[in-house]
Amino acid sequence: MKDIIIVIICYLIGNISFSFLLTKLKLKKDIREFGSGNAGTTNVLRVLGKKYAVMVLMGDVLKGVVAVLIGRLFGSSQVVTILCGLAVVIGHNWPALMGFRGGKGIATSIGVFLVYDPIIALICIAIGIIIIAVSKYVSLGSICGMAIFPLVNLVFSRGIQNFIFAFIISVIAIYKHRANIGRLIKGTENKLKL
Hints:
Helix content is 74%, strand content 0%. It has helices spanning 2-14, 18-27, 41-48, 50-74, 78-93, 106-116, 118-135, 138-147, 149-155, 160-176, 178-186. It is a multi-pass membrane protein.
């Protein structure tokens, strides 16, 4: 019973949308009414600027970090830790408190893996950043960085449990970017402007 409560708490932590809260404080409006309509860091960058985007990024990463730490400290097994990581990402992407319209979960997934498996996280983050720097497409870097999570897990022989965890997180991220993938194919995706 305790493990179920822990996982639910992590889902609710995922529901805390820093992009939504900061835009409400700054503009008194919903971030999902602007730009791409996504409640995430890149949209905040376009709407509110770098300072607020960094705050959202840090907040969303922190959610992932906290969820995994909760799983490790209070859960009965590594499976509970994995479920806490999944729950916070699902809570971010499909928050009940926001009508199930959240972000895409990249920053929160990064936070999850920075604690769960920092070496793999840093490799995937580095690859994602390089792709963003070269292509100027945040979505492409995010998709590629997340897509290689399971592959890097295999290379480092992290075991089937970790591979499945990475695979599920990767599939969720790619699914949430399906509209971006369509725009990338058509050549209509927005490039990053700093």
